Amino acid sequence: MFFVEQKNPNSEGLNYTVTKNEEKMGMHGSFTCVITYENTLAHLIGKEGEGFKYMLHLMNEARIAVGMQGLGGIESALDHAVSYAKERVQFGKPIAELPLLKRYLSDYETERDAIRALLFDTISYYDQFQFLDLKKKKTNDLTAEEEKQFKFVSMWTRKRTPLVKYYACEKYTELSTKAIQILGGYGFMQEYPLERIHRDSFGPLLYEGTSQIQALMALKDLVKQAVKDPRRFMASIFTKHAGLGLIAGKSSSQVEFQKVQYRFKKKMVKLIIITLKPEGSRLLNPKAWQSEENISQLMIHAETLCQALCYTETLRVLAKHADLDSNRVDLFNRYSLLVRPRLEAIYSDWELRS
Ligand SMILES: Cc1cc2nc3c(=O)[nH]c(=O)nc-3n(C[C@H](O)[C@H](O)[C@H](O)COP(=O)(O)OP(=O)(O)OC[C@H]3O[C@@H](n4cnc5c(N)ncnc54)[C@H](O)[C@@H]3O)c2cc1C
């Protein structure tokens, strides 16, 4: 990894060439250029040969940041849609009060708040990960407790990073489309900022790894777990069964979350077994799972698996919030109502296509 100064002290002019300024469909406030480095003076950052590792670290952080950008876009689009819907009168009342649009706006608000909760929860893991990672690198001296915490927050940061990038950015594009529709014809006009907000939403969908790449990352982690230790993977699912007494004394939100999670895991294991086809007698043998061809078969489900993970992880966070603050129970219930039919549609898709 290199640091390039703008000026080369040994020669006139810039230290690199801006070869092309890209004309984009949106994000006109930010230049996107092709840069050519020829006879460029550069300073090595860190250790030689470690650049790719640094880049991955940078990219992971950037993915969470782009997720935040997605949330910002969702909030902005919703604000414009709500204020317009409250003012615009059709059929004798503000369109915000027409049943169908009321549902749009309510579902929109639910998903915005839920995505915000998922992002903040993920950032709090990432924050702890950063702190302990730096401490470890600087002093190589973490206490046993810190080491345990480091492993825990690393695992959650890794698991959640592709999800927050995928979920917030996909919803930015999808919900800004709906927001345009709420403005009717004005949604299409440049007089209102929604068409710009929607055009801008395509950048975050693509950079720092496209949605499809995020979905593959999420799938890779799952398959790795399953293939590495099928016995443990299976056990981790079946111990989640709501009937095993684990839910005794838990809040209604936790019980609901656990039911949704158990159903998801059951369906996911079925999908993995059907697609990876380990022979029945060798089900618990890691080697039985590792066919390239079968893994490719599973990959066609990467995006729906990623979506299901986004919904269940968000529900996990909202159940935790509901336990901490009774005012958050309503959001948990609304979000559960929103995503349970989506999860069922995903399970039908898995059954029909495998
Ligand atoms: C506004 C903007 C700013 C950018 N800024 C920067 C920057 O500052 N620095 C920089 O380095 N880059 C930058 N990029 C580039 C950006 O990171 C890439 O465009 C992006 O990562 C996608 O790569 P690609 O264009 O090569 O698409 P491709 O990799 O060719 O992908 C094309 C399609 O194939 C899909 N695809 C690819 N591989 C797989 C797979 N294995 N499985 C399933 N689907 C797959 C993709 O999801 C996509 O749908 C920027 C892009 C944009 C739009």
Give an overview in words:
It is a single chain. With 354 residues, this protein is mainly alpha-helical. It has three domains: 1-45, no CATH class; 51-209, Up-down Bundle (Butyryl-CoA Dehydrogenase, subunit A, domain 3); 216-353, no CATH class. Helices cover 67% and strands 5% of the residues. It has eleven helices and six strands. The chain has helices at 51-87, 99-139, 144-182, 194-200, 202-206, 211-228, 230-238, 252-276, 292-299, 302-324, 329-353, and strands at 2-4, 17-21, 33-36, 42-44, 89-90, 93-94. A two-stranded antiparallel ribbon has the order 1-4. Strands 2-3 form a two-stranded antiparallel sheet. A two-stranded antiparallel ribbon has the order 5-6. Strand 5 and strand 6 form a beta hairpin. It is globular and about 70 Å long. The mean pLDDT is 92. Flavin-adenine dinucleotide is lined by residues 24, 27, 32, 203, 206-207, 209-210, 212-213, 216.
Summarize it.
The chain is mainly alpha-helical and 354 residues long. The protein is 67% helix and 5% strand. A two-stranded antiparallel sheet has the order 1-4. A two-stranded antiparallel sheet has the order 2-3. A two-stranded antiparallel sheet has the order 5-6.
